[in-house]
C-alpha cells in the first residue's frame, strides 16, 4: 500500500520543489492578504496543467510551474484524503469526492472536491475563513438590513449568488451576531461545515452532510423535532428541501438558506420552478407569506487592485412585494427594490453606483457585473 505525506516535495515550479503543505501555505502568505483576509480563495490542480490559484477572482498560474502528471497529483492530494476515499477514486472514475482537511498548526480548514475529467484526476481546494467577520463589516448599502434581519423571530431569509460570492460568510456573520445577542436555539445543516461557532447567548448545534445527516430533507425533518428557533440549511437544491424550508418558516421558525441565482428576481423563478406546474400558485402564495428577505450578492475587484468587495441586492418582503409574488408579476420586483430604499431595499445597480462614488470600484467593473444592461447610461 502506497504511503503519502503532505510534506513530500513532488511538484516542480519556480526553480524548486513544492509539497502540498507548501501550496496550502500560500493561502497564508501575508503578501496575498487584504484587510486581514486571504486574496486567494481556491487552489486548482489538474493533470496536464500547472498549478493555479484563484487570486481576487482570477485564475493565476504559478510562475514556471510544469504540468502536473497523474502520479504527482495523487502525491499532492492523497495526503488530504482517507484510505477509503483514495480507494474510491482509484477504483471508480465516475465518482467525485468531497472532503475536508484541517491544518492544525494554523487552525485552518480546507474543503476539497476531487474528480476525473478527460485528462485524468483534478482537484479544487478552498480555504475556509478562519474568522467570522463582524456584521457591520459586511458592507450592506443600508445597515438597517442586518439590523432588521437579526431581530426576526420567523420567516425565510434567502442569500443568493454564484459559487464563491460570499453567501456563507454573510449568513455566518448574521448568525454570529444573533449568537452573541439573543438567547435562541440554532441548528445548522451544512455541506460542509465552513465556519465553526461557539455557543454564547445562543445554543448552537452544527451538523454536516455525510457525517451527521444523510441529506438536507431528512436533516430538516429532524430539526423540526429538535425545538429550534433558527435553522440554517446550507442550500436549497430541490423541491423537497424548499417545501420543508417553507413549512419551517410558516410554523414559527427563522430559516436561513442559499440558492445559486444571479439576482433577486431570478430567485423567485428558480424557487417556484422547482415544483410541478400545478403547484405553482400554492408555492407562490406560501412564499409570499413566509419570505422575509432575499439578498443577492457578488464580489467585485477593488479599484486599488487589493482584494474584492461585496455588492448586495436586497429585497424586503412587504405587502406590495407579496402581492407581486402571488400574482406572478415578477418583472415588477426590480422597481419595488429601486423605490424601496427607505424600507431597506436596493438594487444591485444602486449599490454599484454608491461603490463607484466611494471610489472603491471602477465604472468598468460596475458595467461588467451589473444585472441591468442599461447601467452604462446612468454612469455617464
What descriptive keywords fit this protein?
380 residues, Beta-Lactamase, Rossmann fold, 2 domains, seven-stranded mixed sheet, 14 helices, 17 strands, globular
Explain what you see.
With 380 residues, the chain is an alpha/beta fold. The chain has two domains: 11-128, Beta-Lactamase (2-Layer Sandwich); 135-379, P-loop containing nucleotide triphosphate hydrolases (Rossmann fold), CATH 3.40.50. The chain has helices at residues 20-25, 70-77, 83-91, 144-149, 167-181, 216-223, 239-250, 264-273, 280-290, 319-326, 333-339, 348-357, 363-369, 375-379; strands at 11-13, 16-18, 33-34, 37-38, 40-46, 52-55, 58-61, 97-103, 108-117, 120-128, 155-160, 185-190, 203-208, 230-233, 254-259, 291-301, 308-316. Strands 13-12-14-15-11-16-17 form a seven-stranded mixed beta sheet, sandwiched between helices. Strand 5 and strand 6 (52-55) form a beta hairpin. Helix 7 crosses helix 9. The protein is globular and about 60 Å long.
